[in-house]
Amino acid sequence: MAADPTAVPSVVKHRETLDKALKAIRTREYWSPYPEHPKAYADGATAQAAFEALRGTRFDLDQPGTDGWTGGEVSPYGIELGVEYPHPDVDVLLPAMRAAMPAWREAGPENRALVCLEILARINARTTELAHTVMHTSGQAFMMAFQAGGPHAQDRGLEAVAYAYVEQVRTPGTAEWVKPQGKRDPLTLRKDFTAVPRGVALVIGCNTFPTWNGYPGLFASLATGNAVVVKPHPRAVLPLALTVRIAREVLAETGFDPNLICLAAERPGEGLAKTLALRPEVRVIDYTGSTAFGDWLEDNARQAQVFTEKAGVNTVVVDSTDDYKGMLSNLAFSLSLYSGQMCTTPQNLLIPRDGIATDDGHKGFDEVVGDLAAAVGGLLGDDARANALLGALVNPDVKARLEAAASLGEVALASREVPNPDFPDAVVRTPVIVKLDGAKPDDEAAYMSECFGPVAFAVAMDSTQDAVDLLRRTVRDKGAMTVGAYTTSREVERQIEDVCLEEAAQLSLNLTGGVYVNQTAAFSDFHGSGGNPAANAALCDGAFVASRFRVIEVRRPV
Questions:
Q1: How confident is the prediction for the chain on average, in pLDDT?
Q2: Alpha helix ranges (H) inside 28-141
Q3: Does the predicted TM-score (pTM) go above 0.90?
Q4: Which of 8, 40, 310, 492 could bond 291 through an S-S bridge, CB–CB 3.0 to 4.6 Å?
Q5: Cα–Cα separations (whole angstroms), residue 422 to 132, 236, 383, 418, 425
Q6: Rounded to whole angstroms, how far apart are CA atoms 25 and 34?
Q7: H-helix or E-strand spanning residue 466
């Protein structure tokens, strides 16, 4: 007998929110139920205390199959978190999760959606506390951790629930089938249709955006009836552990087995993601991270539907502009936000070597690059402002790439160290801008590879047409999560649009104000396309949720 979550008043109230989310994904207009300003949430001191209370504790989730404890997170800001998490015996954990699924399946799409919305509401209520966990595992500055790790991540989770609901109710639950037979009695059947989950879903978390990248797959799988095992990145466990704890509490309160969602924290060097990915119980995998492991999952986890977001080379074509200062300001912010540690941050700026036409007169290549360097320098000249935008470098590999980039070409803007008075051990660096030549084969190895972090390449091109051609090759061969372009020419705009349509890349044109190429809004913007090597799925569309379940039919004569 399925549980009845409608008996829980806090669940029923979410029907209106679900309806608004369904409308938003149809209209693509701006909408969010989750405020993005800290003043809308709990007292900051209380949330800070709640975060501090988690440090140095054993994070018990009362999960089956716990065979020990593991931890070791150290904040990019230099403090040890000291949290220990349950380590799973997967031979015990996964069967227990499978056993939790029948009642969840029988609950149906609407009840599952409403329970998921209650989970999101509970998460939202603890946004400020979660922001501290995101900040101290990802290195994001607090305000970005608050917004991207909080309401924006919750938006993406709700968006996934809405798409999951739409796809599941596309087929009616029951139908009467009557086929005329002329003078004979018609053939009559009753047909029942049930959305059936695929199995256990595995979410492999990332270090930089544990909630923003984790929530879409987590909630898409849960809303379609699957159990979800969350395997966080070992340097970013706490935000997802707290998420799992909240979800387990809601599931238990609404009459479901809390083992529908479990945490799988790994020991150092264990490689637990590979072990889980090959288990026969695991039928859905969501992954954000390196191309190498994403390719391994796609090639080896054959029993599962695998959704990957991997590396790409994001490109901006600069042809001309009617707002030169606005263009420079917009690009400077895009390059600086979170020290370029976003999968959507632009890396290659393709600029004709003869320069560009602007509202401030013709600007040569060197002048454009110099002015951009000055814009970044001005934006980050004040240390307090720089810390608020840059955050901290998430790991030593980013720092090593940043330092190596300076040897790849002429440095137009050198990176500098920014002291953080609140966290003296934080590694904070401004972006480096390096000039490269698109006509030199030796430079191609640099600009045709992703250099994740605060590194930008200003690439001199023989012409705008050459830039468009390189854009096409880059997206086709290396992939891109984002493409940007600046042009006053309708013909150039059309050529770039054609490239992005044909190579399946999301395009932003002539951004000069408060919207940036590396930001996307849930319910309206698609994150990735699923059509180029950077990612095989988009957040969020029907394809992202539809293969997480199957419709099974039972026919009976009437």
A1: 96
A2: 44-54, 90-99, 101-125, 127-138
A3: yes
A4: 310
A5: 14, 21, 12, 12, 9
A6: 16
A7: helix 464-478
